[in-house]
Design brief:
alpha+beta, Outer membrane efflux proteins (OEP), disordered N terminus, five-stranded antiparallel beta sheet, 9 helices, 462 residues, 5 strands, elongated
């Protein structure tokens, strides 16, 4: 009966997970297959689906060296420690000590006794316990637990974001390597074309204008190839920071991007709520806010405190631990706030408003998550179609360039036609490389949008 009284009841609303509108299927799925448990993307190390050893090695360094990830890890440990503090209120607080005090009393004091000088030895112990009758402590622990789990979800989200950013920068760098390789090979072709034009000029078959045109397009392309170095250096430095290395001591070898992205199954929309750590974190903060309403409501009820003290006291250390020296006391107190000028009402209104805020934030996070999945599914679908069309354009432009060079060698046309065909062919080839790079980037963003390999079951049972 006493235990039931001490445990009391828990005031405040019972937590119910907020509802969010979830579509039956993704609008942009097209020919995408439904995710299955055996899919590589669901196994945690989602970047391995790209089968790139260099990317794998870089991703492994993030968990060891990235400072932003270390910040998130420290924040989670801080939240978990706060939970331990909240849980400590389930138990009484016990203090103890030992003291020895020597007294010399005035002989002229009122009611003077024969003893005017003595030593008082004490070994006191005090116990204080707040009976959680209304559930204030339980609600506080619930709020701390939810915050710790939200912090763990934040950590997972930071980890996912950093790894996605690394993969994004990495494939963008490889796309620049592909552009540079294309431009460098084009420079070699243009150099040969310039030599041909100079030879024809020396033979009286071409004009100085045609030589100048060939020289111009050669140097322009060479400048474009050089300019790529600026963007590549910036990406290399960004990757160095992500893996926790000084930019000055980090370098990546050139590796042109050549293969398209793998198929990434997006899964079912109903599973997205469990696969995104940011959604899980937002939901946990709704529960935390719900528990804080209970904490605010418990303030309307009396605070019951039980106290006890005991120990030993004697004027002689030799008799300090003997039975007659023992002392103890038990007590209890109930305190109720009679007037606070609306402070409790304000705290309650604040807790309810905060709860409504986090529900709205949760639903907005869910809507944004579905948008990101749809955006990148659409990007992959459209870019795949564009890549096929662009390949046809590249083939046509190369054929047109071959015909123009043949016509120029035969004296049928001027070098201006060759220059025009060269510009068109190079532009189409660069566009094809850019499309391939964008497809890889959209693939990375889709992986991030569906939560990588994370699942809500990975939240710690704190």
């Amino acid at each position: 009966m006493i235990a039931l009284f001490l445990s009391g009841c828990t005031v405040g609303p019972k937590y119910v997970r907020p509802t969010a509108e979830v579509p039956a299927d993704y609008k942009e799925t097209g020919n995408w297959k439904t995710a299955e448990p055996s899919d590589a993307i669901s196994k945690g190390k989602w970047w391995e689906v790209y089968q790139d050893p260099q990317l794998n090695a870089l991703e492994d360094q993030i968990s060891v060296s990235n400072q932003n990830l270390k910040i998130a890890q420290a924040q989670f440990l801080e939240a978990r420690a706060a939970l331990k503090i909240s849980r400590s209120n389930y138990f009484p607080t016990v203090t103890g000590g030992i003291s020895a005090t020597h007294y010399h009393l005035s002989q002229n004091r009122p009611l003077a006794t024969a003893t005017s000088e003595y030593t008082d030895y004490q070994i006191p112990a005090d116990v204080s316990y707040e009976a959680d009758v209304w559930g204030r402590v339980r609600r506080t622990v619930e709020a701390s637990r939810s915050e710790a789990q939200a912090s763990a979800a934040d950590l997972a989200n930071v980890d996912l974001s950093l790894r996605a950013e690394l993969a994004f920068d990495y494939f963008e760098l490889r796309g620049l390597d592909a552009q540079k390789a294309l431009l460098e090979s084009t420079v070699i072709s243009y150099q040969k074309a310039l030599e041909l034009t100079q030879s024809r000029y020396q033979g009286g078959l071409a004009s100085a204008v045609e030589v100048a045109q060939a020289q111009t397009i050669l140097e322009t392309t060479r400048a474009q190839a050089t300019d790529i170095g600026v963007q590549r250096a910036a990406l290399e430095h960004a990757i160095a920071v992500l893996v926790g290395k000084p930019a000055a001591s980090f370098a990546l070898p050139a590796m042109p991007l050549t293969i398209p992205p793998p198929s990434i199954p997006p899964g079912l929309p109903s599973n997205l709520l469990e696969r995104r750590p940011d959604i899980a974190g937002a939901e946990r903060r709704v529960q935390e806010a719900n528990a804080q309403i209970g904490v605010a409501r418990a303030a309307y009820f009396p605070l019951l405190t039980l106290t006890g003290s005991g120990g030993f006291e004697s004027t002689a250390i030799t008799t300090l631990l003997q039975g007659p020296s023992g002392l103890w006391s038990l007590g209890g107190a109930a305190a109720e706030t009679l007037f606070d000028a609306g402070a409790r009402r304000g705290a309650m209104q604040q807790a309810i408003a905060r709860h409504d805020e986090f529900i709205a934030s949760y639903r907005e996070t869910v809507l944004t998550a579905f948008q990101e999945v749809e955006d990148n599914l659409a990007a992959l679908r459209v870019l795949e179609e564009e890549a096929k069309t662009e390949q046809a354009a590249v083939a046509a432009a190369e054929h047109s360039l071959d015909l123009s060079i043949t016509r120029y060698k035969g004296g049928v046309t001027s070098y201006l036609e060759v220059t025009t065909a060269q510009n068109a062919a190079l532009a189409d080839e660069v566009t094809a490389v850019n499309i391939l790079t964008r497809r890889m980037e959209a693939s990375i963003l889709l992986v991030k949008a569906i939560g990588g390999g994370w699942n809500i079951s990975q939240l710690p049972r704190v």
